[in-house]
TrEMBL record:
Signal in keyword set: yes
Domain of life assignment: Eukaryota
InterPro entries: Acid_phosphat_B-like (IPR005519), Acid_phosphatase_pln (IPR010028), HAD-like_sf (IPR036412), HAD_sf (IPR023214)
Signal sequence residues: 1-21
Lineage: Eukaryota, Viridiplantae, Streptophyta, Embryophyta, Tracheophyta
Gene (UniProt): LOC101754291
Stored SUPFAM superfamilies: HAD-like
GO molecular function, one term: acid phosphatase activity
Keyword terms of this UniProt record: Signal
One of the Pfam families matching this protein, by short name: Acid_phosphat_B
PANTHER family, A to Z: ACID PHOSPHATASE-LIKE PROTEIN, VEGETATIVE STORAGE PROTEIN 1-RELATED
Name by which UniProt lists this protein: Acid phosphatase
PROSITE patterns referenced in this protein's UniProt entry, alphabetically: PROKAR_LIPOPROTEIN (PS51257)
Length: 280
């Protein structure tokens, strides 16, 4: 059904791009001798040839035997795939291109545009009790410099080398999230950082956030060292404490589903993309 819809879209695109033959014919036709010659001569091949393996049952993806990387990423983002340990080895190049090639930033921008539109539409009480919860890693700060050196999530997580990286305090701000952060402050909504980083990383986390231009958060909530429990348990528990203290969580943004699941979630949640790792 979904494949049929995709085909209809492709067909419409091809019909717009070419009027020399019928769309279905284009879709099922093998490359002609002329097309092969054109390709050899450097003339761009018709788009459909490049797309054929993505919609067919054979071809490159069939030979690989796994799930195509774009479908894998969608399943991850939609929370259909859970408890995964590493990015499929075949998908290192795909995830690398996604993260560095502009797609990740573009997807993040859409999320933040929605979050800002939502925040701007809120009727605020103006009593200083409205807060917005921000995750840190892959939400406020990006660890891409680390992951780019470690296979974009294809390597098993190494706590030793990752913690050493965190202690450098060199993670980069995600510009989209920073735009939301600054907008919320201008609207009078107070940012609260809520992170799975542990209390013993507080000092370097503050340094890193300030170095990257984050100012004016209300609280920085870190996980106690030795905390036993799930990420959902820790984060929802901290949000409950905020609520019990009289704060109203108008929004909550993170890159993991465990950032945004578990009551009280916040009046509205926003999920940033993250195809590199899973935290349950
Ligand atoms: C994890 O990283 C440390 C520090 O770079 C390294 O010494 C160790 O061999 C790594 N462990 C694995 C299993 O790769
Ligand atoms: Mg995160």
């Amino acid at each position: 059904m979904a494949t049929a819809k995709l085909l209809v879209v492709l067909v419409a695109l091809m019909a717009a791009a070419s009027s020399s033959c019928g769309p279905w014919e284009l879709n099922i036709r093998m490359p002609t001798a002329r097309a092969v010659e054109d390709a050899a001569a450097g003339v761009a091949a018709p788009l459909i040839h490049a797309l054929r393996p993505l919609v067919g049952s054979a071809g490159d993806l069939g030979r690989r035997g796994g799930v195509p990387c774009d479908s894998w990423r969608l399943a991850v983002e939609a929370y259909n795939k859970r408890d995964w340990k590493t990015v499929p080895a075949d998908c290192e190049g795909y995830v690398g291109h996604y993260m560095l090639g502009g797609h990740y930033r573009r997807d993040s921008r859409v999320v933040v545009d929605e979050a800002i539109a939502y925040a701007e539409g809120l009727k605020l009480a103006g009593n200083g009790r409205e807060v917005w919860v921000f995750d840190i890693d892959e939400t406020s700060l990006s660890n891409l410099p680390y992951y780019a050196k470690h296979g974009f999530g294809t390597e098993p997580f190494n706590a030793t080398s990752f913690n050493a990286y965190v202690l450098e305090g060199s993670a980069l701000a995600l510009p989209e999230t920073q735009r939301l952060f600054d907008k919320l402050i201008s609207l009078g909504i107070k940012p609260v950082f809520l992170t799975g980083r542990t209390e013993n990383q507080r000092a370097i986390t503050v340094v890193n956030l300030r170095r990257q231009g984050y100012y004016g958060w209300m609280k920085l909530l870190l996980k106690p060292v030795g905390f036993k429990g799930t990420a959902i348990g820790f984060k929802s528990g901290e949000r409950r404490k905020l609520q019990d203290a009289g704060y109203v969580i108008v929004g909550n943004i993170g890159d993991q589903w465990s950032d945004i699941l578990g009551a009280p979630e916040g009046a509205r949640t926003f999920k940033l993309p993250d195809p590199m790792y899973y935290i349950g």
